[in-house]
Amino acid sequence: MQGVIDREWIVRKTLFTLAMMTVLGIILIIFFVAREAIPAFTGAGPANLFSATWNPKSGQYGMLIFLTGTLATTVGGLLLGTPLAIGSALFLTQMAPRRVRSIATRGVELLAGVPSIVLGWLGFTIMVPWIRSATGSTGTGLLAASIILAIMVLPTITAIAKDALEAVPESHKQAALAMGATRWQMIRRVLLPAAKPGLLVAVILGMGRAIGETMAVALVIGPATAFPTSLTTPTHTMTTKILIEMGESTGLQRSSLFAMGLVLLLMAMLLILLVRLVTHRKEVVR
Amino acid sequence: MTKKRLGLITAVSLAVALMLVFAAAGCGESDNGTAQPEEPKLSGTLNLSGSTTVLPLAQEAADMFMDENPSVTVNVQGGGSSVGISNVAESVVDIGNASRGLKDEEKSLGLVDHEIALDVIVVIVHSDVPLEGLTADQVFDIFTGKVTNWKDVGGPDQAINVVVRDEASGTREMFDEKALRKEAPMAGAIECNSNGIVRQTVSSTPFSVGYISLGYLDSSVKALKYDGVEGSKVTAVDKSYPLSRYLHMFTRGEATGLAGAFLDLVLSDGFQNDVVSQEYIPMTEI
Amino acid sequence: MTTDLESEVKTQETQPRVDLAGDVCEIRDERIEGIIQANITRSERRAQLLDRTATATVWTLALIGLGILAFIIFVILYRGIAAALAPGFVFGKPQAMKEGGGIWPMVVSSFYLALLTIAIVVPLGVGAAVYMTEFAKEGRITRLVRFGADSLSTVPSVVFGIFGMVLFVIYFGLGYSLLAGALTLALLNMPTVMRTTEEATLAVPRSYREAAMGLGANRWETAKKIVLPSAMPGITTGIVLTMGRIVGESAAVIYTVGIFVRKAPTSPLQPAAPMAAHIWHTYTEGALVSDWMRVANGEAAFLLLVVLALNLAARMIARTYRKRLGMVN
């Protein structure tokens, strides 16, 4: 009997250790990224790091250009992607005939599985030339990146929004319909308000995906180390700057790339806290 | 049995299991090195990392080297010039590849420089630019943004689209130093991640100008004379054409053993004339 | 009335164009008189018009979404399939200096990396999930673990990449290698495996556990003999889908595994070049050979085919299991 209890105790502790790996993992990531970023904060200083000028040759490591690029492409991607995603989720849960629904659900899952480098390659070889010939610009920049990001956040937002809409009790919907509401009135007055926290979570997590996306954006953003002056001028985001320059930089320049990584990390964790604030959902993993 | 002792045993067995995994992996590694013990000559593993520009050359050399010495494994990886230099300085790899020379802070690392090829950079324009050449001053003015219209350098009244390499590029490093007199290119210039993308961008963007390695030059773009001199093998070798740079392999201390044998192959007439000369100027001609 | 409505709702679900609001109103119209009636009819009409417009809009949005997906798959395959299926491409040796290169070492790298990562992440993720659903009581610990998992799943993959480079490649001295990449990707994919496993184990009816416990089994025996086998379809599906994610991952791989090799890796400590990372390399350095577009198009198409196949496999596995176990899910 003693042996049995002990074995269960070992198993319990082992499984506990495995579960704690998530915590250990995020701590390790923060620790090692921060460790590499510290020289930038001590050597260049926060004022330098968050300035608008990036010119390593003269010791200027400002990340404002990249921060702007990240925020602008994220907002653009969400503006284009959210209506599509919420529309798709409404379609899947409220309107689609059963057979269409199962095919469309699979389609959304497939879209989530398309590798971002493949999407970026498509953007670079097809979409950028289109924008180029339509606008007479280089074709790269915020517009191209926003379109790509809209496609990337579409499956994320759709899937979570679908869950949120499905979680609204059937009785609520029936009550609305019984009172003579049309389907749209039911959706607008009952369904959407009831699912609002879930929909917000969907958009926030979509935002997380957009902020962190690297490869697909890297092929269509330009890049250029300059603030965007229009939707079709090449610019940079934090992820693309890190990706392209990490291997070719030393000293403070490398360190300030890690500082950008740290900012991205903090943004990601802030979004998680935001999600917790919006809803009491215990788990928000995609 | 107390719980504490059990915990200890669990920890130890986990550690042993981990070590076994690593050992097994390590065995696989050394198996490669000693697969054919009857081979009397060289054996072991040679690791290279660094510049993605040098990568194709190094891979080609690695193939030949392994064909000649079947019991040698050569691992070649990218990462970037700075990664290669710091890796070889820290003895993580045996040879560090770089598309640039050592920076000041890297000169004290005790690295020995082996120049393996000469790369010539040519200024290219879109085929609609009716010029045959630019002076060094004109190139400087255009790329630093002091001149923004082709009519100021003898061309048509059209705005100039400037295309440069990204900051991680060794090509850009050389161009900024020699053609731009250590100044940075104009803000808002399109930055491209590779020679191929510069070529494609210039060939598809009207009235654009950029620069690429001679090896990438094809009929889709037009090469310009620089200060009246055409960029070519001949002019680079006789030093009348200034825009060129060496590709490097660095070793920590003098190259001995496997690394020495590998560098012998890279600098041999055969490899230089058959492989290097396909895209670069071989050292044998300098 | 209620039962009628319920059946109406069901019809509506399967046949979206049937508008039940009209029927309901007609019934009501009989009971209401005069001007009120007219007013209501007017607002009803407006509501119905709005309903039709909204329905059309939602259909359009959904069709755009599906259209984008169809377009992506069609274009990638259309442009790359000929190259991908050409003899000597998938099984061919890559070339950096001359035309006609293939991608065999990249194919091997991708699968090697995926299997290695799975070997690390499955014990981690499944173990953690079993702890969460079978052992832990809701409380501070579970909240902490969930926060860790949520954070891991939102960290950008390029940050995973530079973290893996610092910790595994440099600090542990693994160098650019499959193992360094697999460790990085294991951490990246742990939340997904954990979540799919948790979902699958939670779907196992409570009565199964109670029965096992009633027979004297302890928690671990119950988990091992009852819960995990019943949850197997869900777990396997999750693992295969995770493989798809690993194969498609590039940002976390470029600085941990590598971007170009000419020989297929044979040990976890060797550098490798998964397809997704090699497409990036082809984009940045590949233009030294004139057929670089062919290589990238073909590799993108083949990569997409692999991901689609894994998706399909996941679904088939789930379906077969479900049939065999006679589970309704």
Topology readout:
The complex is a heterotrimer of chains A (286), B (286) and C (329).
Chain A: H1 2-44, H2 46-49, E1 54-55, E2 60-61, H3 64-95, H4 98-113, H5 116-135, H6 142-166, H7 170-178, H8 183-212, H9 215-218, H10 238-245, H11 251-278
Chain B: H1 3-33, E1 44-50, H2 55-68, E2 72-79, H3 81-89, E3 95-98, E4 111-125, E5 133-134, H4 136-143, E6 161-165, H5 170-178, E7 190-192, H6 195-204, E8 208-213, E9 222-223, E10 225-226, H7 233-237, E11 244-252, H8 257-266, H9 269-279, E12 281-282
Parallel strand pairs in B: 1-2, 1-3, 5-10, 6-7, 6-8
Antiparallel strand pairs in B: 3-11, 4-8, 4-9, 4-11, 4-12
Chain C: H1 2-14, H2 20-29, H3 34-85, H4 104-135, H5 140-154, H6 157-171, H7 178-202, H8 206-214, H9 219-248, H10 251-254, H11 275-285, H12 292-325
Helix pairs in contact in C: 2-3, 3-12, 4-7, 4-9, 5-7, 6-7, 7-9, 8-9, 9-12, 11-12
Outline the structure in words:
The complex is a heterotrimer of chains A (286), B (286) and C (329). With 286 residues, chain A is an all-alpha fold. Chain A has two domains: 2-46; 55-285, Orthogonal Bundle (MetI-like fold). Chain A has helices spanning 2-44, 46-49, 64-95, 98-113, 116-135, 142-166, 170-178, 183-212, 215-218, 238-245, 251-278, and strands at residues 54-55, 60-61. In chain A, strands 1-2 form a two-stranded antiparallel ribbon. In chain A, strand 1 (54-55) and strand 2 form a beta hairpin. In chain A, helix 1 crosses helix 11. The two termini of chain A are 42 Å apart. Chain B has two domains: 44-118 and 246-285, D-Maltodextrin-Binding Protein, domain 2 (3-Layer(aba) Sandwich), CATH 3.40.190; 120-244, D-Maltodextrin-Binding Protein, domain 2 (3-Layer(aba) Sandwich), CATH 3.40.190.10. Chain B contains nine helices and twelve strands. Chain B has helices spanning 3-33, 55-68, 81-89, 136-143, 170-178, 195-204, 233-237, 257-266, 269-279; strands at residues 44-50, 72-79, 95-98, 111-125, 133-134, 161-165, 190-192, 208-213, 222-223, 225-226, 244-252, 281-282. Chain B starts with a helix and ends with a strand. Chain C is an all-alpha fold. Chain C has a single domain (86-325), classed as MetI-like (MetI-like fold). The chains are: A mainly alpha (286), B alpha/beta (286), C mainly alpha (329). At the A-C interface, helix 1, helix 3, helix 4, helix 5 and helix 6 of A face helix 1, helix 2, helix 3, helix 4 and helix 5 of C.
